[in-house]
């Protein structure tokens, strides 16, 4: 892009390389030769957005069309925003440098609830009216997708169309339709009505909500007969033929994941009851090792990266893992490429191959037992026993690892103080295990215990459950602190106030749009960043708009209550989730999808495991 | 084991446009990846953490462009320099361009001077700028450890200035020896508030005889 108009600004901000584009691999099209211009907006910094695989995949799908040019846009850091506002420079796209307000479509990806203020702030910085109701065909169409779109309601007032599920094909469909309506010069309202008929597309303005006196939703219906009552998610069925970008911009500046990312499969065979991804990404769909190997080779040739990170929900459950590692190691070692695997299941096969595949420089390992006692692990359906945990740690120590990181959660349903103490006991046992073994002289062990707070998420068995209050979470955090008596255990925990806000938006309805708008008006943004999160500001915001945040975060919803996201169909049935919720309280586990199908609702909707599992 | 034979290739390249917003560390990483993509037979150091042998003559500071910059890269084979230049160039981002490649004539430590084009956004005239820079030029110089006021005039070999629309073009030749590098930004610092902005482009690197460093 031409940076002349912001030259003096760039001289004053931190990391100007975030704002100039021009990286190797950047895609420039002739803007006069395309019918549709899309700005893919990531509501966080360049460094985070450029590390996001979903954004790469979707941009690639859109740019495959010669009539469309999809560019990038990220949230400017506050120093840049200040300068832009002062100098009257509106939000622009990195490739052309053109203003977002002149684009046909601005597409936002919603990865976490705390980015909502950034989305709205970016609209404001772009000079686009914030509310969908204030916009018409002279403004860009604002669309959004991503994991948080499964409960789109808190953002309902700002977004014209939500894309529910995997957008590879659906997004292209939507763009095609927009192009048609644009060419014909038809009004926005007509387009929206037509868009609502595309599978996976949700147009919130076409639905009416009423509330009872107790504040709960009493009715939710589409305003027109031809607008579906339920919106079914879209997803790919064959991953081997799925579009996958092997060529993309190589950032100049250091980003969060500055490496090749290989998506191995989608979905997860396990059903941890707190985990939203495990439900909404069902069913499991794997890529074959041959395809992955070919994609990795191509990526390497085109990027020059020296690290491949394999990405998937629970990588050790990949049925072709051994074959894949063998193939990759066959050439990556020679090319000095490191392989890295994300957090492993502790009981997973920890063989020679795996050890070789792990980044040699990374001396730590991470495991996620999530709860400190067997009882509570059964509640959350983390099907792993203490023996398995200890065996996994022993294997790691035997191979010379001296640092382990364990992830846990506080605020799980039925959690007692004994469960909290159990975390400390488990960590201590692991420390003791290390010292009971023969080990390298002088090398101590570090067990890091990292504890987050449960955020009950839509489309999980815990969706009905109220979150522990901030005070209760704080009490539990302190209790655990007191139980840890050795410096060999490093304890850190999440800010419970942040988790509270996440829960408000995760389980919220569209009345929260007012709170988001008010928060942005008061300068709130980058809520997921410690330096910007302000609990007191948010408390004032909720007061100002007359919303009780505890109504959303801490209240337990009734099983027969109309949930704010009930019109979204993620494939898994509400009956299944309820059954799982009841099994949780009964401390009963559910086997994984490979061992046995639990009839979650996807049996005849694209799941290939259920037949195999059912035979067992 | 036979020692590995290495061939050092010297690449002459430019860093222009938006690449001026990229720090040296990020530039190094970008060039490293371009070299990997170029498919050249790269030499890697042996040992635990193998890396390329890539050395830059004199990296320009952030916000400065370079029309003449050099880096040396060690290869395992003697390749055709023109073909290598082409391969590296096509693997670099648009604002980084390879002009040529050759086997080095001189060592980087023979670098003594560098010349610059500095477009000053100022109401001062060329004559005034020359006048100001004629005597002692005392500026605050910061290093990692300390901050001291020094007279940098001995490090200014020569300079000319020319009036243009919207300001002055200053063309200094400054000391650039490994132990006596003068960043051109100190001239702007010295001129003070009267200069509102400055676009700096390094135009050439010289040896002690004012011959282009090759
Ligand atoms: S293993 Fe459990 S926590 Fe991990 S993705 Fe699968 S369901 Fe979620
Ligand atoms: S249909 Fe059965 S096997 Fe398939 S995802 Fe659902 S529970 Fe698992």
Our count of domains of chain B comes out at 2
CATH architecture of the largest domain in chain B: 2-Layer Sandwich
Strand portion of chain B, in percent? 35-45%
Compute the number of strand runs of chain A: 19
Named CATH topology of the largest domain in chain A: pyruvate-formate lyase- activating enzyme
CATH topology of the largest domain in chain B, by name, is Alpha-Beta Plaits
Overall pLDDT level of chain B: 94
What is the alpha-carbon Rg of chain A in Å?
A: 24 Å
Percent helix range of chain B: 10-25%
What does this structure look like?
The complex is a heterodimer of chains A (616) and B (214). Chain A is α/β, with parallel strands linked by helices and 616 residues long. Chain A has 2 domains: 4-232, Cobalamin-binding domain (Rossmann fold), CATH 3.40.50; 260-507 and 555-569, pyruvate-formate lyase- activating enzyme (Alpha-Beta Horseshoe). In chain A, 34% of the residues lie in helices and 14% in strands. Chain A is built from 21 helices and 19 strands. A 6-stranded mixed β-sheet of chain A has the order 2-1-3-4-5-6, covered by helices on one side. In chain A, strands 15-16-17-18 form a 4-stranded parallel β-sheet. A 3-stranded parallel β-sheet of chain A has the order 10-13-14, covered by helices on one side. In chain A, α10 (321-332) links the parallel β13 and β14. In chain A, α17 (513-521) crosses α18 (535-545). The longest helix of chain A is centred in the C-terminal third of the chain and has 20 residues, at 417-436. Chain A is globular. The relative contact order of chain A is 0.10. By secondary structure, chain B is of the alpha+beta class. Chain B has 2 domains: 7-104, Pseudouridine synthase I, catalytic domain, N-terminal subdomain (Alpha-Beta Plaits), CATH 3.30.70; 109-206, Alpha-Beta Plaits (2-Layer Sandwich). In chain B, 19% of the residues lie in helices and 40% in strands. Chain B contains 4 helices and 11 strands; from the N terminus they run βαββαββαβββββαβ. Chain B has helices at 24-38, 81-91, 126-132, 185-191; strands at 7-15, 54-56, 64-75, 96-102, 113-122, 138-142, 147-151, 156-164, 167-177, 180-181, 195-206. In chain B, the strands form 2 sheets. In chain B, strands 1, 2, 3, 4, 5, 8, 9, 10 and 11 form a 9-stranded mixed β-sheet that branches. A two-stranded antiparallel sheet of chain B has the order 6-7. In chain B, α1 (24-38) crosses α2. Chain B starts with 6 loop residues before the first strand and ends in an 8-residue tail after the last strand. The model of chain B has no long low-confidence stretch (mean pLDDT 94). Chains A and B meet through α1 and α9 of A and α1 of B. The complex binds iron/sulfur cluster (SF4) (2 copies). One iron/sulfur cluster (SF4) binds next to α21 of chain A.
